[in-house]
Amino acid sequence: MNADGRSRLDQTPEWNALAKHREELGEVRLRDLFEADPDRGTGYTLRVGDLYVDYSKHLVTDETLRLLRELAAATDVFGLRDAMFRGERINITEDRAVLHTALRAPRDAVVEVDGENVVPAVHAVLDRMADFAGRVRSGEWTGHTGRRIRTVVNIGIGGSDLGPAMAYEALRACTARELTFRFVSNVDGADLHEAIRDLDPAETLFIVASKTFTTIETVTNATSARAWLLDALGDEKAVARHFVALSTNAEKVSAFGIDTANMFEFWDWVGGRYSYDSAIGLSLMIAIGPDRFREMLNGFRIVDDHFRTAPPEANAPLLMGLLGVWYNNFHDAQSHAVLPYSHYLSKFTAYLQQLDMESNGKYVGRDGREVDWQTGPVVWGTPGTNGQHAYYQLIHQGTKLIPADFIGFARPVEELSDRLAAQHDLLMANFFAQTQALAFGKTPDEVRAEGVPEELVPHKTFQGNHPTTTILATELTPSVLGQLVALYEHKVFVQGAVWNIDSFDQWGVELGKVLAKRVEPALTEGADVPGLDPSTKALVAAYRELRGR
Ligand code: F6P
């Protein structure tokens, strides 16, 4: 207990039991665990919708899992989960409900925020999006000069970019190939330049995606895009045919010059990093069509229902969250790798970085006090097999423990030629080989048996014992993508609940924004910015000199 009578997570009996258990387990070996229980490879698995989750290659026993579930019970993870699904204001620092789950609720569901059922509004927006997406896809929605739209440029950043950009890449094989999609986020003018340099303004639709519509990067890029359009088309009226907005802020959208008739709304109970299944997904819906977008929402819902109803022993987000806690807090792991064996998931880990690190990168607890335990890990990774030829060396033989998720599919996308589809088994052979090597390594005796000279034996020994979760699905469909994203959303939720932090605010990004605004006049005009620290002052001076100012 603290002086104020509140118990600290790291002083609870459940936490202490885990710490003791960790000590007792010592250097538990995966080889030994599998030797003791050869059925572990099938026993330590779960099915969630279309996902097969294998957690057998983790440094855990039944007892570890039981103790972790006790920690979840003691920290009332399911209580907070139920409060979230009920629409309670669990985002305490912003006093908001957290209801991304309502974005995929069926039409007849009732989810109330302050006594009002939000589901009809969710579906009204989805219907408007579907109508608009259908018109762009069919060519009925034309540009100002009557030409059909050929390129859609989404301008947004963070959650207003990463989600749609990731999902567009993931589902490329389902997209309308006659349309081109680009995603602009960086305030570096090069981003917009590269996105529009070869486009015809008369055939380009800009989707300005911003929850707040105050984000400087997005507003700046959107303003430049509008200038580019008007330079070419020379008529203010063109804006209405070439710009739509996705936002919660009708006033700012209107002030920017976009007719609110061309705005697709969402709500403050949708966090930016949880928003791509809201109106923020419009570019994706245009790309894959409304039906497939709805399939994706169904996928999200399958995992929502699972998270809400599956018992603790069979609850995949709970399990994945708790395994992360086990390594983060009881093995001092600093990071977590997510390694998809699908080229189409090339942006998946970048998307998860925001989801996880913006949610759980907090050192202050829900009670306003500094926490005394580690919170969110560094999340990183890129698609296999590229990573194998780059940084996997460190995972295999480095000095750090890096738990990893391997995500793979039984079938390649249908569109591939027979020859390219045949490469899929090789891709997946690598997938399985890596988790095998990571788990079981290669002993010095095994190395010697290969005739390796004694002085090279230590170098060629793989200690193994690197924990991994394997997630398999038949194919990367819209539904499976929704299931994967929801799985990680709820995993992040579980960890935030255990660590007693508010996973839904992001105050940590504010200071940099404020300082950028303050520093800008120093760069452009050489203004003397009061309170600028000596280091930044010197850097600004060097910048101005290099810039020739
Ligand atoms: O600065 C962080 C952040 O607020 C993210 O949480 C959000 O996804 C991103 O900026 C973009 O915000 P908006 O959609 O309001 O432009």
Q: How would you sum up this structure, described in words?
A:
The structure is a single chain. The radius of gyration is 25 Å and the shape is globular. It is 47% helix and 10% strand. The strands form three sheets. A six-stranded mixed beta sheet has the order 1-2-13-12-10-11, sandwiched between helices. Strands 6-5-7-8-9 form a five-stranded parallel beta sheet, with helices on both faces. 43% of the residues are buried. By secondary structure, the chain is α/β, with parallel strands linked by helices. The protein has 23 helices and 13 strands. The model has no long low-confidence stretch (mean pLDDT 96). It has helices at residues 13-25, 30-36, 40-43, 62-74, 77-86, 119-138, 162-170, 189-196, 216-233, 238-242, 250-256, 282-288, 290-309, 316-330, 348-360, 392-397, 418-421, 424-440, 444-449, 457-460, 478-499, 510-524, 534-546, and strands at 45-48, 51-54, 112-113, 116-117, 151-155, 180-184, 204-209, 243-247, 263-265, 335-340, 378-380, 404-409, 468-473. The structure holds 6-O-phosphono-beta-D-fructofuranose. Residues 157-160, 210-212, 215, 218, 272-273, 358, 506, 509 line the site of 6-O-phosphono-beta-D-fructofuranose. 6-O-phosphono-beta-D-fructofuranose (F6P) is lined by residues 157-160, 210-212, 215, 218, 272-273, 358, 506, 509. Its main location: cytoplasm.
